[in-house]
Amino acid sequence: MNLLGKAANKEFWAGLKNKDEYKHIIDAVLVDYNKCCIGEIETTKFSKFRLFKDKGDRTAYQETFFKRQHRMYTMAFMTLLYPENEGYLELLQDTIWEICDQYVWALPAHIENIDENNNCELDLDATTMAMALAIIKTVLEDRLHPLIKSRIDYEIDRRLVKPFFAKRWHWEYRANNWTAVCSGATGCTIMLNRPELFELARDRLNENMADYIRSYKEDGVCVEGAGYWSYGFGYYMEYAKMQKKFTNGQYNLVDNDKIRNISTFLQKLFLDKDVIVNYGDCGVGTDVSVPAGFMFGLKKSFGNDVQLPPKKALAYEPHYFPFMLRAFTDFDISFVSEDISENATYYMGDCGWFVKRTKNYGLSARGGCNGESHNHNDVGTFIFSIDNKQVIIDMGGRPYTRQYFEGATRYTFLETSSRGHNVPIINGQYQANVPEAYPKTYYENGIFKVDFKAAYDINELKELTREYAPDENGVTITDKFEIDGNATFTERLVSYIEPKIEGDTIKIGKAIIKFNGALAKASYSKDVHATELDQDGNMKKGVDIYLTDINVNEPKNEFSFRVEVE
Known about the structure:
Layout: H1 10-13, H2 23-36, H3 46-49, H4 51-55, H5 59-81, H6 86-101, H7 124-139, H8 146-166, H9 177-193, H10 198-214, H11 226-246, H12 257-263, E1 270-272, E2 275-276, E3 290-291, H13 292-302, E4 314-315, H14 321-329, E5 344-348, E6 353-357, E7 362-366, E8 382-386, E9 389-392, H15 402-405, E10 425-426, E11 440-444, E12 447-451, E13 461-470, E14 474-483, E15 489-495, E16 500-502, E17 505-508, E18 511-515, E19 520-533, E20 539-552, E21 558-565
Parallel strand pairs: 3-4
Antiparallel strand pairs: 1-2, 5-6, 6-7, 7-8, 8-9, 10-15, 11-12, 12-13, 13-14, 14-21, 15-20, 16-17, 17-18, 18-21, 19-20
């Protein structure tokens, strides 16, 4: 049974490199070829492997790990696109050989007992590596050396099949991107490489996937953000489509209204043609992209219900191997002509997200809670964009370290604390990590409202609501509060642009923030946002972050400020 469709068809790949409509995809493969496929294959060193446990650093080991992985995926596409070049096949097989020799396919950050000889851990990378190898073996079956195919079979059995059936894994109980990616990649690998065993795994995998989908509410919001939506939901769809074909339609996890609704999530996040809402750990900085092939696959499945993002947001990355495969197989020339609408308003009430896109600016605000997967303490925050750039920003995540995910240190970072978000500081205190508190949101008569007292662990705070009242040129933001005793109340705004303050007006780029100068005074400070870490997990390179505060004098029970386009 052909489970991969056109990808397993030689005729499809023949001459593809000469078709103009595929040039941008092939060019992306060639860029990656020049970046990670020239020179000797790097080895993964024990000293770098230990850095995560010893110092918290993930980067040093992962750079080599991902480059090797990336080389294999890229060379698979080079071999498919240029079958006449035997050198490409040789390098692909050399890389597969090295990966089969690799101590473990999981990342050190994901290995539970890292000091033991624990080399068959199943994590995001071990499962997706196995799936990619099963796909490569399937689409290049007659060209790979018999020993390479035998090693692929052996290592998939040793590193994925046997460990999966040996026990239940932690990601089967998570109901987030881990559940979907690991379950999806495991299921696809078994269907491709050990089809006789799939019936034994099917019910368990389907229940995992049902748990993942139950983690979404009816509004289709992925609280982990756009990047984790495409990653988790992408592998869900790969598994669902393959299983549908494998079972001749008996098991269909694709065609239902909730899946269709989840598929439309991304198009609701655009504030401008290249600006995406990036709450939580979604991206480092304000840039977010999603795999093009994943989006093409959704478009193929759900037609006009799915609106493709602008070209800049579509990534062609061999690293996400099954999605890059779909970039070729599911591409349609009509996709490149799509563009987002200039005006749109979305209220995603189940999770409390609000997005408004206008010809002059983009606005997003959120409710949610401070106990989500990849959580930041940011209930009530907002993003304001002008001219295709966030002006009042969300920083997204930061480079991952052990300390970034440890409970004791998670909210000490600017990116995760409400200290680095556009929310009030009350009595000198920031929002608390209160997983069980679910603030309420409302949308009536064009006004988005968040009731978020529960996000602050402050006994003297009796009420706190924020209202966003957008109009043609900007938004008026009103905080209403009740605090016992003497109180301090500060409005915080975060930007990459240094603010200019003149009396009761703050200018940040082309955004003008106005407030009542008789009630408050503005000031700003500078911090640094990490974009790169050294091998000790310390900041190596950063970006200036400006924290602008509007300090309210003798706060009573209400304060408003307005953000508008200059």
